Automatic annotation (TrEMBL):
GO terms for biological process: phosphatidic acid biosynthetic process. This is 1-acyl-sn-glycerol-3-phosphate acyltransferase. Pathway: Lipid metabolism. Keywords: Acyltransferase, Membrane, Transferase, Transmembrane, Transmembrane helix. InterPro entries: Plipid/glycerol_acylTrfase. It comes from Pseudomonas donghuensis. The chain crosses the membrane at residues 20-45. GO terms for molecular function: 1-acylglycerol-3-phosphate O-acyltransferase activity.
């Protein structure tokens, strides 16, 4: 897997080429999702193995294809990226918590962690391009129910790596992240370790309610920084579950607010 910083050249040019490459990327993503649902996963389902083995194959396939998709977007000039600390991701019982500035944050993280589970928004379970992959991989629907929380806890207790975006939706540009307490509650009940991943995007793109064709004047750069591990038991010992959850959520919010405020120029192109 290539994780080196991608070369950055002519950041302000080739607007129309990047617009075309972005359109091709979205088309490729949609057609790829349909092909997985109609062709690939039915073939994989015919291979021997139990339900856990089928899930493992589905997650590996999605992760591999997501990383190829990121590489395609980089090679076609849509984006550049830098990832620091990726080797710390993918441990049993690890909860990966990230902020959510862009539509493709989840593509980056699932592409980096081959067997990750992920809490995904409920609408993906009904989208014809995505419902096949999310069902086959047994990702967790973010419907806000107690069943969702219990499923996330069970996944962590079963040794899975779980990716979650505590904001529940993409960050409003220029605003600090606002975390819901559900992620902290899940971590306290099931996670062996919490690993924060700070995602910076410059210029801002693919934000909430922003159409795909409204691309910035220069190429987008993604910076993913894997932070130091957080022990959830250090917060569980501080009081009853609601109090511990609130303190952990505040700690996470402060961590991301600080990281996002620090050295914003590092995500800017020269």
């Amino acid at each position: 897997m290539e994780l080196a910083t991608q070369a950055i050249s002519r950041p302000r040019d080739a607007y129309y080429w990047r617009l075309l490459a972005t359109a091709v990327s979205f088309l490729l993503f949609g057609v790829g999702g349909l092909c997985l649902r109609l062709l690939v996963f039915p073939l994989l389902a015919g291979l021997p193995g139990d339900a856990a083995r089928h899930r493992q194959r589905a997650r590996h396939t999605i992760s591999w294809l997501f990383w190829r998709f990121i590489r395609f977007m980089a090679a076609s000039g849509v984006l550049t990226y830098e990832i620091k600390g990726a080797e710390k991701l993918g441990r049993p019982g690890q909860m990966i918590i990230a902020n959510h500035p862009s539509l493709i944050d989840v593509v980056f993280l699932i592409g980096l962690v081959r067997q990750a589970n992920c809490v995904v928004k409920q609408s993906l379970w009904h989208n014809p391009c995505t419902r096949g992959p999310v069902r086959s991989a047994e990702y967790i629907s973010n419907d806000g129910s107690m069943d969702m929380l219990d499923s996330a806890v069970a996944a962590l207790q079963g040794g899975q790596t779980l990716i979650i975006f505590p904001e529940g939706t993409r960050t409003q540009p220029g605003q600090p992240p606002a975390f819901h307490r559900g992620a902290a509650a899940i971590a306290l009940r099931g996670a062996n370790i919490i690993t924060p991943v700070t995602i910076k995007v410059a210029p801002s793109t693919l934000t909430k309610a922003e159409p795909w064709y409204r691309i910035p004047q220069r190429r987008v750069h993604f910076n993913l920084q894997v932070g130091a591990d957080i022990d959830p038991q250090a917060f569980a010992a501080q009081g009853p579950a609601p109090q511990a959850s609130r303190k952990l959520n505040e700690h996470l919010h402060q961590h991301f607010t600080k990281e996002l405020a620090e050295d914003e120029r590092s995500t800017e192109h020269p």
